[in-house]
Structures are given as C-alpha cells and as structure tokens.
Specification:
With 294 residues, this protein is of the alpha/beta class. It has helices spanning 22-41, 44-59, 70-87, 116-126, 144-156, 195-214, 231-245, 249-258, 263-272, 276-285, 290-293, and strands spanning 64-68, 94-98, 133-137, 159-163, 177-179. The chain has a 5-stranded parallel β-sheet with strand order 2-1-3-4-5, with helices on both faces. Strand 1, helix 3 (70-87) and strand 2 (94-98) form a beta-alpha-beta unit. The longest helix is centred in the first third of the chain and has 20 residues, at 22-41. The chain starts with 21 loop residues before the first helix and ends with a helix. The mean pLDDT is 95.
Length: 294
C-alpha cells in the first residue's frame, strides 16, 4: 500500500468546509494558519544556520539562488526580486528560478516540475561556483526539477539548503541544511499554496532579511541601503537620516540630495560633518557598515 505524503493528506478539521458559511470558512482557515508560526518556531535553529551560511557566502562574493516549481518557485522569485529595492544589492546577488521559466509565474505549467533537464538548464543559466548558495523549495520535497538542481549543485561544491513541509522529503538527501516546518495537512487537500506556501514565504523572508542584516545592510532596524527610486522611498530615506542623525527632516533632505540619494553616506555626512567623498571613504574603510562608522 502506498503511503500518502503529509502534504497530500486530508485534513480532518476541514472535512465539511463546503457546508460552512463564508465566515466559518475564514475562521477555519485562520485556525489552520495559526499552526504555521508554531511549526516555524521549531526549526529556528536550522534557519539560523542557513542565515549564517548565506551571510558568509555574501562576504566572500558568493550569490544566493532559489529554485522551485509552482507556488514554491513563485515565492522564490518574489523574495529574490524584493532584495534589490529593499537592500540595494546588485542585480544577480539574489536570484529566483521557477520550473517552466517566467511564463510559469502567471500560468500553471505543472509538468515542468517533473523535468530534471529543466532544472539543470536553469542551474547552468545561473552558472554556479562553489561560493554560491543554492536553495531548493518544495512543499512535498520531491520534484525532479528541484532534486536535480540540488544534487548537481552539491557536485559543483555549492552549499545547499532545502525547504519542505514533508518530513520524508527527498530533497533532504541533497541539502546541507534541511528546513522542515511541519504545518500539517492543508485546509484543502493537497493545496500546498496555503499553509506550506505561507511557511515558505515566512522562511524566505527570514533567510534574505537575516543575511542582509548580518552583512550590514541595516542600521538598527532601518533599511539604510534602500534604493530611493520613487517619492515614497525618498521620503523614507529622509526620515531615516533625520532619525539616525537627529536632525530635521528638511536638513536630512539636503543631505540626501548632496549624497546622491544614499542614506548611509548622508548619515555619515550629517553626523561627522564631512564631505560626500570623506563619508564614502569612511564607509569603504569599514566594509560599508554604518554602525562601525558612527
């Protein structure tokens, strides 16, 4: 008899969800969602190790790449694409690949997850080196696309991280760090875009944010490498400089302009009362870490 993997099993708490009122449906799903943070709490040690692994790779000039199919792939692409505006990193430092390519971001290309060849093609496109970190994301942990990527990445010498809601996930065999939040059966049988997807989103947020904090992309809890590409972000940058340097908003705005819209440079200029060039030199001497300068 074939054993059904955890992510495909039926949830006894939602067997009659189709007989519920709209409010009851929402309440039931919410009760299931409450289990997600608890499950993640139990794998914090593994997440912490993964953050440190990624941060060390960044310090050595390495990159981070997420690989997944379906919802998992979309979430990886989402997290990767948010790193540029949030932390001001160079394009290519954090990457997201989804089975089936960009078209799969909007349209379901389900059979693509069964293709090891597609996985190897995408890995080749990324062109990994032993400095890089490869993250495989999958609710059930068994797509050939993800398994092929992780196995080949290890052969190349990359460190690998696997994220799955299935304790028997095949990808753990090819993962240096295996992150396994047991969120339980989905509210809708097999709909891993729900609890498993939410858990993946939360974990990816922790990995990228934690690594960026570790390499100095924040000061306290401010996003000091934010790219000021629109009015909202320019306003945010001005407020950050105002609060860190303890100056007025208008003064901060002037320093932002003089710094070339660079929050860290503007902060150093304001606090050290120095020129843009002097501020940039101080930051370079301290690895770009604002706290070391001020």
């Amino acid at each position: 008899m074939t054993t059904t993997v955890l992510t495909e099993r039926r949830n006894p708490n939602t067997e009659n969800i189709d007989l519920m009122t709209s409010e009851q449906i929402a309440q039931t799903i919410n009760q299931e969602d409450l289990k997600i943070a608890v499950a993640i709490q139990k794998v914090i040690p593994q997440i912490g190790k993964a953050i440190e692994l990624i941060a060390n790779a960044f310090h050595q000039g390495g990159r981070l790449a997420y690989f997944g199919a379906g919802t998992s792939g979309r979430l990886g692409v989402l997290d990767a694409s948010e790193c540029w505006p949030t932390f001001g990193v160079e394009h290519g430092m954090v990457n997201g690949f989804i089975a089936g390519g960009d078209k799969a971001l909007r349209f379901s290309i389900e059979n693509s997850e069964d293709s090891a060849e597609l996985g190897l093609q995408d890995l080749k496109t990324f062109s990994p080196t032993p400095k890089d970190i490869i993250v495989g994301i999958s609710a059930n942990g068994g797509p050939k696309y993800v398994l092929a990527v992780l196995e080949e990445a290890q052969k190349i010498g990359c460190k690998t991280i696997g994220i799955s809601s299935n304790p028997e996930a095949k990808l753990q065999k090819f993962s240096n760090i295996f992150i396994n939040p047991i969120v339980g059966e989905e509210a809708l049988t097999g709909s891993s875009r729900m609890k498993s997807g939410t858990a993946q989103k939360m974990i990816l947020n922790m990995l990228s944010t934690g690594a960026m904090i570790r390499i100095g992309k924040t000061y306290q809890n401010y996003m000091i490498d934010v790219r000021m590409v629109n009015e909202k972000l320019i306003d945010r940058g001005c407020r950050i400089v105002s609060e860190i340097a303890n100056i007025s908003y208008e003064e901060a705005k002037k320093y932002i302009e003089m710094s070339g819209k660079n929050v860290k440079t503007a902060c150093v200029m304001a606090i050290k009362q120095c020129s843009k060039q002097q501020a940039e030199t101080l930051l370079n001497q301290n690895g770009g870490i604002l706290r070391k300068v001020i």
